[in-house]
């Protein structure tokens, strides 16, 4: 995966064989992605790379992450359970996702007309980060580690695959990740687990 933010906008995320080729999804959506990048920067967000994608941070919290796919490109909000979504823009990446969290774009020219609304959503999310607010936790059988929540929010394919796992297989990943004391270790494990999750397997399956 890439570590230089500019590489994403010129080559892609580095996760697949289409990296640095004309077929990379970042090439298809180049203008729209640059428009989103500009909006995030103008909002005062700090730009970094996480999970091979441009991630924007404020007050020590992840605010949004940008992603490009074959059929669309997306701006995904972290901690989306707090968002009011007055324009009903946010969508769920999968049927089992608890909160709508992403804005989906199917054409490069859609970002500019939506800029005022996107700015207002970014400002709302930044306000929550400044206040240290988090979405109220729901009663669930398995509470996911924060690093896994962030990874699922940034990777719709991974999120859909994880949602499709049986509760037992989901728990196997939670137990494995929670056994790591350091956040960096949990993040590294999630990277190693990605292919296994996509294939529908539990943490201990071969």
H-E order: HHHEEEEEHHHHH
Strand content: 5-15%
Distance between the termini: 24 Å
Q: Structural class of the helices, strands and pairings?
A: alpha+beta
Helix content: 40-55%
Helix count equals 8
Number of strands: 5
The parts where pLDDT drops under 50 for at least 5 residues are none
Cross-sheet strand order for the largest sheet: 1-2-3-4-5
Radius of gyration: 17 Å
Arithmetic mean of pLDDT: 92
Largest β sheet strand count, sense and barrel closure: 5 strands, antiparallel
Overall geometry = globular
Summary?
Helices cover 44% and strands 14% of the residues. The chain has 206 residues and is an alpha+beta fold.
Features:
alpha+beta, 44% helix, 206 residues, 5-stranded antiparallel sheet, globular, 5 strands
What does this structure look like?
32% of the residues are buried. The protein has helices at 5-10, 25-28, 30-42, 111-131, 146-154, 156-164, 167-178, 183-198; strands spanning 46-50, 53-58, 61-68, 73-77, 102-105. The mean pLDDT is 92. The chain has a 5-stranded antiparallel beta sheet, sandwiched between helices. The protein is α+β, with helices and mostly antiparallel strands and 206 residues long.
């Amino acid at each position: 995966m890439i570590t230089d933010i500019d590489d994403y906008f010129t080559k892609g995320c580095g996760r697949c064989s289409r990296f640095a080729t004309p077929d990379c999804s970042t090439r298809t959506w180049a203008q729209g992605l640059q428009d989103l990048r500009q909006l995030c920067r103008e909002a005062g967000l700090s730009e970094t790379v996480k999970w091979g994608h441009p991630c924007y941070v404020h007050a020590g919290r992840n605010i949004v992450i940008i992603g490009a796919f074959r059929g669309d490109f997306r701006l995904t909000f972290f901690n989306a359970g707090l968002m009011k979504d007055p324009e009903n823009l946010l969508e769920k990446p999968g049927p089992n996702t608890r909160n709508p969290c992403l804005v989906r774009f199917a054409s490069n020219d859609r970002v500019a007309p939506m800029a005022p609304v996107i700015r207002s959503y970014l400002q709302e999310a930044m306000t929550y980060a400044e206040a240290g607010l988090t979405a109220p936790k729901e009663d669930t059988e398995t509470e996911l580690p924060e690093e896994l929540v962030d990874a699922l929010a940034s990777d719709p394919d991974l999120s859909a695959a994880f949602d499709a796992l049986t509760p037992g297989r989901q728990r196997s990943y939670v137990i494995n990740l929670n056994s790591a004391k350091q956040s960096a270790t949990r993040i590294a494990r999630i990277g190693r687990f990605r292919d296994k999750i996509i294939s529908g397997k539990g943490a201990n399956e071969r």
